[in-house]
Write a structure and sequence with these properties.
The chain has one helix and six strands; from the N terminus they run E-E-H-E-E-E-E. With 106 residues, it is α+β, with helices and mostly antiparallel strands. The chain has one domain (13-97).
């Protein structure tokens, strides 16, 4: 639905896995609109986690307008930077960090 309430397409986002195991997300209508709304950020985080097979080294788990840059060295050490991308208070930011498995199957 567009902002005027008219249906533009029956589906504007699709995710699937192809025969080779590649994961694909197609978002064709306003994919980057309303990025600072709770529902859109939750959707985009879920998609990125699914696309990466939950291998992202870190992500902001809470609803905050915080930018995150992460770099992982070859030795597995992380360096990260957080930037409050708004004038909103950033109290209680939840940062999710991926840890190496401690036991087989973790």
């Amino acid at each position: 639905m567009d902002y005027g309430g008219q249906e533009v397409s029956p589906c504007s986002l699709a995710v699937y896995e192809n025969k080779l195991g590649g994961r694909i997300c197609v978002s064709g209508y306003y994919p980057w609109d309303h990025l600072h709304s709770l529902s859109k950020t939750a959707q985009m985080k879920a998609i990125m986690r699914w696309l990466s097979r939950d291998r992202l080294p870190a992500y902001i788990a809470s609803y905050h307008k915080v930018n995150l840059w992460v770099r992982e060295s070859q030795g597995g050490r992380l360096a990260l930077a957080l930037l409050n991308a708004s004038f909103d208070p950033a109290d209680g930011v939840e940062l999710a960090l991926r840890r190496p498995p401690t036991r087989p199957g973790d």
